[in-house]
Amino acid sequence: MRRPSAQPGFTLSKLLVATVLVAGIGVSIYPTLQSATTQRVNSVVMDSVSHVSNAYQAYRNRYDAGGHTRMQDLVQFMGASQKDTVSEIDGYPNISSGQQTLSCSNKDVTCLRFSNGAVVLFPTQAAFGQTNENNALPFLVDPDGMVSSVKSVGFALYYSGQFRSGGTYLPDTVYYENGQEAKPHLNPNPQYDPHWFTWDQ
Fold first, then answer.
1. Please, is 156 exposed, middle or buried when counting C-beta atoms within 10 Å of its C-beta (0-12, 13-18, 19+)?
2. CA angle 73, 175, 114 (to 5 degrees)
3. What is the pLDDT of residues 69-123, one digit of tens each?
4. Would you state the torsion angle of the CA atoms of residues 115, 157, 189, 42, taken in this order, to the nearest 10 degrees?
5. 39 and 201 in contact (C-beta within 8 Å)?
6. What one-character-per-residue DSSP string does 55-97 give?
7. pTM of the model
8. What angle do CA 115, 120, 121 make, to 5 degrees?
């Protein structure tokens, strides 16, 4: 009587070796993938800030910027954007108090979705108020434009045209809403900046 021939396939030991090899490859390429993701997300944020910067410069070239200037006034110069009234986006990271999720349906805020997928949110009536060094227009950039593990970065556009993130706000940064000074003032807090955010590109 003939003995059945061995069936081709993986033995348990071969399967274990293959699993170890795949795990090793995964561990070795994870930092590279994470770094690439971080760079991509950071690039989207800085691209969005560039849109706002260009819009402010275009506004100043056409109009006299002053304390009356609102973020809303810059929207006409942000060509690659659409108003978003339905999305929910992330708030600041690592903050124990305050809203972790922000709704674009809130009548007090305006959301713009850029072609890069990011959503920029700002108080609709926010204005410089005055033209001092610390007068600014605040806004958030959520790079993936939805609630996720990728949190928003807060920025201030100062009257001078300078931008600062939440971790580097000028002390007592102030903006106005409906003609009134908004309280509390904005102050630098490193926790406002997500761990992946950097100004270096």
1. buried
2. 45
3. 999 999 999 987 899 999 999 987 655 555 588 999 999 999 999 999 999 999 9
4. 30
5. no
6. HHHHHHHHS---TT-BHHHHGGG-TTEEE-SS-EEE--SS-SS
7. 0.80
8. 150
